[in-house]
Amino acid sequence: MINNKINGSCLCGKVSSTVQGPFNKFYQCYCDKCQKKTGSAFAALMFTTPDKIQWHSGQALIKRFDLPQAQRFSNCFCSECGSQVPYISRDGAFLIVPAGYVTGDPGIKPSANIFWAERPCWFEEGKQAENFEDYPN
Fold this sequence. Notes:
By secondary structure, this protein is mainly β. 9% of the residues lie in helices and 33% in strands. It has 2 helices and 10 strands. The strands form 3 sheets. The protein has a 5-stranded mixed beta sheet. Strands 1-2-5 form a 3-stranded antiparallel beta sheet, with no helix packed on it.
C-alpha cells in the first residue's frame, strides 16, 4: 500500500471510508484499556496522517469516548454494530485505523507490541491452542 487506497467498513457496513496509504506505524497494543475496548488480548492499530481518509457513509453513526484520566486513549465505534472505526488522535497528530476495519492488505505489518507487560495471563497459552478452520466439533 505504498500510495494506494484501501477501503474499510464496520461490521454492519453503515460506516465506510477509503484510506490513502502508506501507513506510518502499525502497533499491537496490549494495555489493559485496549483489552477492554476490543474484548481481546490487544488492539491492532495502524497510524497515518489525519488528511488520509475519505468518508463515504456513516460519520453521524460514529460515537467517541475519550477516557478522561488517560492522556491518549480513545475509543471510536459505530453506534449500530459496535465495531471500531478510524479516528483522529486526541492531539490531532494521527489518523488511527483499527486493522480489522480495512479490507485487504494494508501494506504494512505490525512493527511493535506495546504495553507488553500488560498482556493477559492467558495469552501465551492461547497461542498453543489447537487451530480450526471453522467452529470446532
